[in-house]
């Protein structure tokens, strides 16, 4: 399955002439003024794919975007400190990287019992900051067949999505994507690289007015 996700990139246009560093709040104001909305539509050829944007409760505009995401990022960092989940800021988006070695048993899509309370914490923050949508992405290393890895990546993404839904996150805000082995973040030639590639990521995006 190959899925292309449209991305609106306005920051380069707005920020190109800036001579001094900008805060995330200021960037949000600039990007919001030019980009307007980051709401796309995608399709896939797998019946387990769900790709819905813009269904969040409420929306954000202008300088409110950066401030809102700043506060959400800080709360994620506080809630997930020491959990093994990496919180990554990417412009106005937030990525939560869940390594498979702490989330799932080997070759399994069942969430490890000791990781359950961590996802409860993630859901708590997502419920509080409801003016966002999110993509739950499953990724694998290249060990095994591409077909098997695709299925495993989807199953793990669905497991995380279902857990969030059981803990009160509105399913209209959630998109499920499985990428299999197609998007490695490290080499698959080493054990440490393969471990980094086995992951689930939550990509959290502000719902723009």
UniProtKB/TrEMBL annotation:
UniProt entry tagged with the keyword Membrane: yes
PROSITE patterns, sorted: OMPA_2, PROKAR_LIPOPROTEIN
Domain OmpA-like: 91-208
Signal peptide residue numbers: none
Main location: membrane
Name listed for the protein in its UniProt record: OmpA-like domain-containing protein
Pfam family, one: Gly-zipper_YMGG
Cellular compartment(s): Cell outer membrane
Keywords (A to Z) from UniProt: Cell outer membrane, Membrane
CDD domains referenced in this protein's UniProt entry, alphabetically: OmpA_C-like
Domain of life, per lineage: Bacteria
Record lineage: Bacteria, Pseudomonadati, Pseudomonadota, Gammaproteobacteria, Alteromonadales
GO cellular component annotations of the record: cell outer membrane
Record carries keyword Nucleotide-binding: no
């Amino acid at each position: 399955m190959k899925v292309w996700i449209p991305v609106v990139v306005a920051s380069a246009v707005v920020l190109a002439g800036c001579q001094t560093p900008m805060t995330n709040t200021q960037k949000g104001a600039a990007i919001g003024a030019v980009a307007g909305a980051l709401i796309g539509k995608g399709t896939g050829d797998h019946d387990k794919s769900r790709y819905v944007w813009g269904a969040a409760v409420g929306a954000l505009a202008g300088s409110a975007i950066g401030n809102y995401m700043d506060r959400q990022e800080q709360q994620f960092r506080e809630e997930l400190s020491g959990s093994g989940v990496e919180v990554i800021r990417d412009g106005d988006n937030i990525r939560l990287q869940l390594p498979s070695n702490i989330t799932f048993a080997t070759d399994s899509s069942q969430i490890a019992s000791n990781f359950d309370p961590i996802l409860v914490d993630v859901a708590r923050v997502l419920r509080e900051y409801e003016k966002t949508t999110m993509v739950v992405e499953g990724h694998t290393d290249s060990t095994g067949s591409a077909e098997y890895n695709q299925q495993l990546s989807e199953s793990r993404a669905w497991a995380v999505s279902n857990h969030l839904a059981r803990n009160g996150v509105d399913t209209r805000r959630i998109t499920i994507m499985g990428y299999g082995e197609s998007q490695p973040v490290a080499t698959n030639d080493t054990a440490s690289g393969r471990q980094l590639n086995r992951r689930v990521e939550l990509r959290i995006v502000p719902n723009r007015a």
